[in-house]
Predict the structure of DegT/DnrJ/EryC1/StrS family aminotransferase.
Amino acid sequence: MSEQPIPFIDLAAQQAVIRPKIDAAIARVLDHGQYIMGPEVAELEKQLAEFCGATHAIACSNGTDALALGLMAKDVRPGDAIFCPSFTFAATGEVVAWLGATPYFVDILEDTYNMDPESLSQAILDAKAAGHRPVGIIPVDLFGQAADYDRIEPIAEENALWIMCDTAQGFGATYKGRVTGSIGHIATTSFFPAKPLGGYGDGGAIFVGDDELAKIIRSLVNHGYGSERYDNVRIGMNGRLDSIQAAILIEKLALFPSEIEARDRVAKRYSDGLSDVVVTPIVMEDTRSTWAQYTIRAPGRDRSSILDALKAKGIPTAIYYPKPMHVQTAYQHYPKAGGALPVCDRLAAEVFSLPMHAYLDEATQDRIIDAVRTVVPTIVKSAAAR
C-alpha cells in the first residue's frame, strides 16, 4: 500500500503565510482599476533592480518572452550563431530559432550541470567554420546555480560576443560577489509559479545596464511604440506584465531572501543525508544557489525502478531533463559543439530531482532522505538499461 504522498513543490504552504498581504495587494489593483501597466509594475521593476543590483529591470509577460525580447533588442537575425547549453528547458534555444538564427548546442559540466566553457569554445570554432556569424552566448543558471562566468566571460570578450544570462531558475543566486540579474549584458528571468520567485500566473523580467538598450526593450514590450501612441517605430510584441501579477510579486519578493536561506538549509540537510548513497549537487566556491531544483544521480542504478519505488513510498520526483535539446525532434538538426554532447546525453539518463521548496519541514525532509537511502541501494541496473 502506498504511503501518503507529499507535494513536490508546496505553493499552498507559502500562500498560507502571505495570503492576507496578497489579498490586500490584489484589492488595491481592483480599487484603482489600472489592470495593465498600473503603478505596481513600475514599483516591482524598481525593487527587482535594487534586489540584484541591475541598472534597469523591465517586467514582461513570461520568461520565454524575456529571452525573445533580449534577442530582438540585439537585432538577432538569420545567419547569426548563438550558443546555449543543450541541457535546459526548450525556451533557451526556442527563442533563437524564432528569429531565424542558429542555436549551437553546447555540452555541460558534470558537477554543476551548467555550460562547459571548453565545449563553448569548440562551438564557436564550429560556427565560424560553417560560415555563421557568432554574436552571443546564452548561459543558463540551471537548477538555481549561476554558470561559471569567470570562465565564460573571457571567451565572450575574446570573440566579441555579448552574454544574455538565462537566469529563469537562478534569479537571486550569488556568484563571487555578484547577484544573478546583474551579470551579463542582458539577463532574463521567469516568474512561473514553480520558480523560486514565482507569481500566480506567467511573468518574467529583463535586466540591463545600458540605458539605450533598456529604452529599446521597453518599446519592444509594448508593440514597438515610439514617442506617439500609434507611431510604432519597431516591430515588437505584447509582452506586458499584468498589474495584479506585479502586485503579487512585490509581496513575494519581500519574502525571497529568507526563502533562499530556507532552501539552502533544506539542500544542506539533503546533501548531509544522501551524499554517501547518490551523487549530490556541487555548489561552486564563493557562490550560493537558489535551489530551483535539488537534482541527484545514482549511476549504475535503474532510474525508473528507483522512481517507482519512491512513488510507492509517497515521495514525488521529477526528471529535468530526460531529453537534452539536441535530441528533441524540433531541434535535432541544429549544430552540436564538436558533433556530440556526451555529458548531456549521459546525465539526462541519470538525473532526478527531489521535492524542494522553502517550507519543507525537517520531518518531511527526513522522510524523503530515509526513503532514498532505503530504495537506492536495493536497485540494480536493469538488463534493458545496460
